[in-house]
């Protein structure tokens, strides 16, 4: 039918034209205009309230593995073979008392558990039971100095190009009561594929914030000089630093 | 060219917000399909659950594009699943490059476009309504109780089963139904279902995510409402095209509309 053909062809022409123009604009300075709304979204939505906590029966026992490959370098393999006994978390930067924490020290701190939904930027979600130390409690031990604004997480995994994974939160997000340094997933110590021995968990933001294989936490006034300066590996690839939306 | 038959129909504010809304709509569809491609399936559940999968767009090892809707498999090779990679070739990809922004696979860029044009759509939609209220135009556009008995006669007229349309004002009852649904039901819902995908929005306004049945279901509703908006857009295009396309376009660009036998055919 002629009319149907007309609708289909007008719609596809409009969308195809939109795609072609959009692609050219995307590769131009127009992209800076697009990125401008991130600050607005951050200001409006920020981090308020608590992520919903689920029941035991909602847990995905085979929690989906995503992100970079599990580290295979000799240092990590040695750690893994020693059941992470030699692992230390270094917390330094703009803090009054830089410190190294062994796993035993972390486990002796008050442990929190939350069953929360992990929301991936790709669109899928999975529910896990996360147990660990509140990041806020660790910050209380090292005491951020007055100039401190961000907490940067340096990880042991690397992109296929060899760039290390890293992430960052501002102090408000870092102090959120559900932001954990996770030791156990689904009642078992983290396994290598899920970020052993220590990962971050930020249920109020998209999954790429929840960095795995965290080895060092650096408190800074600004992350502008760290790697490409956008506050995280994926942020350096164009993703939003404010991953609440 | 009788001057008395030309009326000033759309204010400058109405015209600007109309076209801004239209541009944002196209950009949101294309960038939304780009985002969909990163997880090309929709589940009727809170967390992802293959047992409650309503739609998936996959490819086989033999480079066949397979679209599965409620368990029914369709071979959609070339259009969905195994299709245009946006760079002159073909690849495993749900929606084709000619439908997405950017045309090549780039989730980060698709999100930047989507979150930016979501604001353009919201701002132009809200301004459109405010201007309509201030100028009084909106009153003529909103479906009223008195329009309800006229809906079916109007449908009969469109189906050519009735010679004359029921008496109506500037907009007929079916137009009012369509505009009222889009402006006051579908547009707010597409914004809310989109926000329900956001973990920070979910933490701050959890009951809204619950209303939609959880994050993955909100993603499904977001997609379904997009299809309904496309249906409205298609109908809108047909009616514009068949009732004096030049006259309509001119009135939405310059504001001036020529009244005539069939609202300006042949102009």
Evaluate the radius of gyration of chain A.
Answer: 21 Å
Largest beta sheet of chain A, briefly? Answer: 5 strands, mixed
Strand content of chain A: 25-35%
Query: What proportion of the residues of chain B is helical, as a percent range?
Result: 40-55%
Helix segment tally of chain B: 9
Separation, N- and C-terminal Cα atoms of chain A = 43 Å
Overall structural domain count of chain A: 2
Uncertain runs of chain B are 263-267
Helix proportion of residues of chain A, in percent? 25-40%
- Strand order of the main beta sheet of chain B, please? 2-3-4-5
Which geometry of chain B do the CA atoms define? Answer: globular
Order of helices and strands of chain A: HHHHEEHEEHEEHEEEEH
Name the CATH class of the largest domain in chain B.
Mainly Alpha
Order of helices and strands of chain B: EHEEEEEEHHHHHHHHE
Mean pLDDT of chain A: 96
Mean pLDDT of chain B: 93
In CATH, the homologous superfamily of the largest domain in chain A goes by the name Oxidoreductase, molybdopterin-binding domain
Number of strands of chain B: 8
How many angstroms separate the termini of chain B?
10 Å
> In terms of structural class, how would the helical and strand content of chain A be classed?
alpha+beta
